[in-house]
């Protein structure tokens, strides 16, 4: 009996094991089929079983690869501006004796390097920021050292102005305003924008930074002609191969020398001042016309520092319509805003603009504006012996009753034009037969009222023959004046007949019966009446 029970138990175990094996195989097969249907690879069996790939022809198995970088990226931020500039060097180096010569020139003048690098402290962060934003070589931030030693007030003998030394016409081409209120060639932000625009344009023309710099100094037309000449001769057209003026020949070597000193100041025994990698200034909106001195006071900065950041404003007043923003040291911008809003001590501006209604003398303009003639000349740069033409704009004191600021049309188009002041001489001439005030006035292109006033007579007065008539004539006109029956010059004059006939022989010999008395009239005044 025990044997029968043991036999049955063994049979049960065998049947159970067969069922488990079948279920496992069925389960594995189902899983593989499900994975294939879903587009996957399915479960990969162990051992040497082949993998299962999807049937989609657009898919392929992943292969092993190797990641690599073209350059090493430094995670630490630049320690100062010099470090930041070095990291952005992209221009090919120029190797020549001229570079070595300029290196020695700068290295032998440590005081000069110190002055110009300290001066650049206010501006170089902004320039580097703009260069990096445009993905341009940071060597170009050193270009103002070559152009102006970073002096925004620099003016060359050829009338180039500002840090970037723009000529008037080139400045106009790049939207740098130049009027009586401001000269954007000196403006820190505007001139930097224009200079980088110009350099980008030149690089686009020549595809080479050294040629672009040569064109910046010499002009794109000159560089283009030099390249064309070398091409005709079968010569290379690099910067070093072109024939150019001495100034342009030294231009890139100067920049390369400064670059080398900045890259390794220890090699040249040069000491560069610390310039923090931080903005020096902020832009602050200007909502009212404002005296320059008051602006500096409200910002709590020295007037010299204010002018260094706002060098385009060359008048004692800032016109809000033409100067919508000013630059202030970073920490002083908030001080200015707070003090400006709290200011209650009177007008913001003590100067305004006056458009001259008609051509007038400086004396007349000064009288009408309430200034002395010397002050008006100095403030508005009026040269001597000039009249102020109608439509010109003058800076004049702003009266207490003037509430409006200068209009935008005046701020944008304000100009100052002159015409030569006519120098006259007091001349006496002999009246001819039937001469009167009107005939004398017609003969010399004068106003009858002026002739009558000079001679203390009425406008319808008739002169007796031979009467000495006083007239004030321009210097050029008096030399060929015709008087009554004959005009005379002071020395060796030739008398002509009243109707323009042939000169008389007697007059030609210099023995005329009429004499001319010449006295210089003071400029700007009214001729005094003849005293009898």
Automatic annotation (TrEMBL):
Bias-annotated ranges (Low complexity): 22-36, 483-496
GO molecular function, one term: peptidoglycan lytic transglycosylase activity
Coiled coil: none
Any one annotated GO CC term: membrane
Keyword list, A-Z: Signal
InterPro entries per record: LysM, Lysozyme-like_dom_sf, Transglyc_AS, Transglycosylase_SLT_dom_1
Pfam families per UniProt: LysM, SLT
Annotated ranges, domain LysM: 427-471
GO biological process, one term: peptidoglycan metabolic process
Signal peptide as annotated in the record: 1-21
UniProt KW Transport keyword: no
Biased composition (Polar residues): 60-73, 503-515
Annotated region (Disordered), positions in chain: 22-73, 483-532
Family: Belongs to the transglycosylase Slt family.
Classification via PANTHER family: MEMBRANE-BOUND LYTIC MUREIN TRANSGLYCOSYLASE C (PTHR37423:SF2), SOLUBLE LYTIC MUREIN TRANSGLYCOSYLASE-RELATED (PTHR37423)
Name of the molecule in the record: Transglycosylase SLT domain-containing protein
Source organism per UniProt: Variovorax paradoxus
Upper lineage: Bacteria, Pseudomonadati, Pseudomonadota, Betaproteobacteria, Burkholderiales
């Amino acid at each position: 009996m025990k044997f029968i029970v043991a036999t049955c138990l063994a049979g049960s175990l065998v049947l159970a094991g067969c069922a488990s094996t079948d279920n496992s195989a069925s389960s594995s097969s189902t899983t593989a089929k499900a994975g294939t249907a879903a587009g996957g690879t399915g479960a990969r069996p162990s051992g040497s079983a082949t993998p299962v790939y999807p049937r989609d022809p657009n898919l392929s198995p992943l292969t092993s690869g190797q990641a690599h970088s073209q350059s090493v990226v430094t995670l630490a931020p630049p320690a100062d501006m010099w470090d930041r500039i070095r990291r952005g060097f992209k221009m090919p180096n120029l190797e020549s004796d001229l570079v070595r010569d300029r290196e020695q020139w700068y290295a032998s003048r440590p005081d000069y390097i110190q002055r110009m690098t300290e001066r650049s402290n206010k501006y170089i962060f902004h320039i580097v920021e703009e260069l990096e934003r445009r993905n341009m070589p940071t060597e170009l931030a050193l270009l103002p050292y070559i152009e102006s030693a970073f002096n925004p007030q620099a003016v060359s003998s050829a009338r180039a102005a500002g840090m970037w030394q723009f000529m008037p016409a080139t400045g106009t081409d790049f939207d740098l305003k130049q009027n009586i209120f401001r000269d954007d060639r000196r403006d820190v932000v505007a001139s930097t924008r224009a200079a980088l625009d110009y350099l980008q344009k030149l690089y686009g023309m020549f595809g080479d930074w050294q040629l672009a710099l040569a064109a910046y100094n010499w002009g794109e037309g000159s560089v283009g002609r030099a390249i064309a000449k070398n091409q005709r001769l079968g010569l290379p057209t690099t910067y070093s191969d072109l024939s150019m003026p001495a100034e342009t020949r030294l231009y890139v070597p100067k920049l390369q020398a400064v670059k080398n000193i900045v890259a390794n100041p220890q090699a040249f025994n040069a000491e560069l001042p610390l310039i923090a990698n931080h903005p020096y200034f902020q832009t602050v909106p200007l909502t009212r016309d404002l005296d320059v001195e008051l602006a500096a006071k409200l910002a709590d900065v020295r007037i010299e520092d204010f002018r260094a950041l706002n060098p385009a404003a060359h008048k004692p007043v800032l016109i809000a319509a033409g100067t919508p923003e000013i630059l202030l040291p970073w920490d002083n911008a908030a001080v200015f805003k707070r003090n400006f809003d709290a200011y209650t001590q009177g007008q913001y501006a003590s100067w305004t603009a006056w458009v001259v209604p008609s051509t007038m003398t400086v004396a007349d303009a000064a009288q009408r504006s309430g200034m002395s003639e010397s002050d008006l000349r100095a403030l508005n740069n009026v040269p001597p012996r000039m009249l102020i033409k109608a439509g010109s704009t003058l800076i004049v004191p702003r009266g207490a009753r003037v509430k409006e600021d200068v209009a935008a049309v005046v701020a944008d188009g304000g100009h100052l034009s002159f015409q030569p002041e006519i120098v006259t001489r007091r001349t006496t001439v002999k009246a001819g037969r039937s001469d009167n005030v009107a005939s004398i006035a017609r003969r010399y292109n004068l106003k009858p009222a002026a002739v009558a006033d000079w001679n203390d007579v009425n406008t319808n007065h008739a002169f007796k023959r031979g009467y000495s008539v006083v007239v004030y004539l321009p210097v050029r006109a008096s030399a060929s004046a015709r008087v009554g029956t004959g005009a005379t010059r002071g020395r060796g004059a030739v008398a002509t007949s009243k109707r323009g006939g042939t000169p008389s022989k007697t007059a030609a010999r210099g023995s005329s019966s009429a004499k001319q008395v010449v006295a210089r009239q003071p400029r700007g005044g009214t001729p005094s009446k003849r005293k009898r």
